[in-house]
Design goal:
Strand order of the largest sheet: 5-4-3-6-7-9-8
CATH superfamily of the largest domain: Vaccinia Virus protein VP39
Number of domains: 2
CATH topology of the largest domain: Rossmann fold
Bound molecules: S-adenosylmethionine
Radius of gyration: 25 Å
Distance between the termini: 65 Å
Structural class: alpha/beta
Largest sheet: 7 strands, mixed
CATH architecture of the largest domain: 3-Layer(aba) Sandwich
Shape: elongated
Length: about 350
Amino acid sequence: MRRSLVDREAVERLFLIAGALRSGVIDALAADDGLTAAQVAAAAGADVRAAVIVLEALAGEGLVEREGPVPEPPVPAEPVGEGLGGPTGNPTGAPAASRTGEPLYRLSALGRDHLVGPGPDLERWQLLHQARKAWGWLELPEIIQTGSAPPRDPASRDTRTMVSAMGERDPAIVEEIVNVCLTYAGAIETMIDVAGAVGHVARQFSRCGVRATLFDRPAVMPIAEEYLGEDAKDIAFVGGDLTEALPPGPFDLMYFGNVLHIYDPVTDARVIREAYASLAPGGVIGIQNYLWGRSRRAAMFAVNMLQSVENGGVWSEAMYRGWLSEAGFAKIETFDLETGESQLILARRPAGE
Ligand SMILES: C[S@@+](CC[C@H](N)C(=O)[O-])C[C@H]1O[C@@H](n2cnc3c(N)ncnc32)[C@H](O)[C@@H]1O
């Protein structure tokens, strides 16, 4: 049998799920235990024919369960006044079967765990974020020719989706990152999670007894507070732009996760110098990223950056080591994370300086 280079069904599944989430179909299902397609459509403000088609596809993917027989294929509504009620006429767009015995739809356990949660399998925002990235990937032919992503309108950014997707990172990765940082750093009292999105890493440090500060763009702060809920009271929030200034500290540990790839080498070198100044003597910097030539994911992630940011990229271990050494950091060590494909570089500001 011929095999494709691409799992086309997976691509379609992504857009099906993202569409069902954005249109409100999933939340309509989540709010009730067994709804007809017409009820789902009414709750989501959706078209009935489209709802039947999407619900059947979700059932085929195992995300929705149908109670009752497969409905007749829904046909488009006929224009008002033309042949109402004929043998195939269906002015409402509802499936023919709905007039006899309407099937009921509900989320399956799989759909609930992955799309509604809460729980470790929740990937609602990650799937929405992944689907949204398609806009940029579709511009790749032009980007390959011009060499860089076109400036994108900041108003078109979907900050909530992006940072919430980060909050759904695998808890095992977050735990490993924090464990490796703390093993390297030893006993510390304070840390700052720079560009920490909704504070999922800051929260883990806080749970380990470290006083954590979350730093990200001001627009992210209310989303982070909402995400953290009760845990927010243990975390300090600082909004700002890391390319303009870092909080002065001094902190015992500064963590930069998945962020320096957004910026060019000159900016990254400067940010690392500023991080040195915001650390207490003996303090530790942690940088987590895919390293060029070392991570299996790095090459593909570089395309992701090529299409999404103007001057960022995937940088090599040698480049990070150079910036850290020039800033004055010592004891530079690189760890390959076991729970993911990225690396964590740790380095220390010498105690007497
Ligand atoms: C890919 S997410 C990484 C989130 C988190 N550090 C992690 O590793 O899971 C990048 C984060 O950097 C933040 N960010 C990007 N540029 C920033 C800037 N100039 N100042 C502050 N935050 C920034 C974004 O808002 C976003 O939360």
